[in-house]
Amino acid sequence: MVERSVVSSTFGAPLYKKVKHKLIEAIRHGEWKPGDVVPSEKKLCERFGVSMGTIRKTVDELSAEGFLIRQQGRGTFVATHNQDRYLFAFFHVVRQDGYKEFPKVELVEFEKTKADAYAAAMLRVEAGSRLFRFVNKLELGGAPVVIDEILLPEHLFPGLTEKKLRARPATLYQFYQEDFGVTVVRTLERLRAVNADAFKARLLGVKVGDPLLQVIRTTLSFKDQPVELRHSYVITHEYEYCAEPVGAS
Questions:
Q1: CATH number of domain containing 167
Q2: Cα torsion at 183, 186, 192, 198 (round to 10°)?
Q3: Beta-bridge partner residues of 230
Q4: Which CATH number goes with the domain that contains 54?
């Protein structure tokens, strides 16, 4: 039975959490793409062998987290990227009192480069493959707080230029989706403490050697394809990293 497969995949979790996990996996693997309507609640009940109440609780939570969007009279759709979803699901730097704001982003560098062994392994491309590299400075509360160094495989973003990147009217992930058909579904992250080098110290207005939080993020699309390798450097005097990944529960 379908319900048995749901239970075995997430043993010990509440039933609606198990269904939620399966729905997220279906989205990640491209069964329903951004903008697609998902099956009716009745069909989802039949698919997973659960009650209408369980499905409604699952859909409610996925809607609140930005995976799904309900439209009155039209149905429930897989969400596309926008500023609110980016801020809720993918931007985790908050002021120490918990306040979160959308950052002001400045493109600092843009160039073409080639993948070294580390980048190749993280992005699952051949060593020497062509990449785009760019650096963004993010301001919060009127002051620089974060530096993002980002690597993208050129074959996934054909025609990307510095001009297009500067002119983008939306978040990076919305830009990836709308201009290149690359949809960010989830991220994998590791954190460590590092010291500021001269380049980062200059951009962030700190001293060389000052402590920074480094966040290493691999960004994944459907079927867990890596599409971005990002190294972020965060000043933590007044800010902290608070990650609550969508769908992790």
A1: 3.40.1410.10
A2: 10
A3: 150, 217
A4: 1.10.10.10
What does each C-alpha distance from 236 to 28, 99, 142, 239, 241 come to in angstroms? Answer: 33, 14, 15, 5, 8
In the block, residue with structure tokens 């659960």: 50
pLDDT tens-digit readout, 166-195: 999 888 998 998 899 888 878 899 999 999
Residues 46 and 103 in one domain: no
Do residues 177 and 184 touch, judged by C-beta distance below 8 A?
A: yes
- Do 99 and 73 lie in one domain? The reply is no
Do the beta carbons of residue 215 and residue 231 sit within 8 Å? yes
Q: In the chain, pLDDT over 70 holds for what percent of residues?
A: 89
Phi, then psi, of 3 in degrees rounded to 5:
-60, -35
Q: Which domain-ending residue is among 21, 53, 78? A: 78
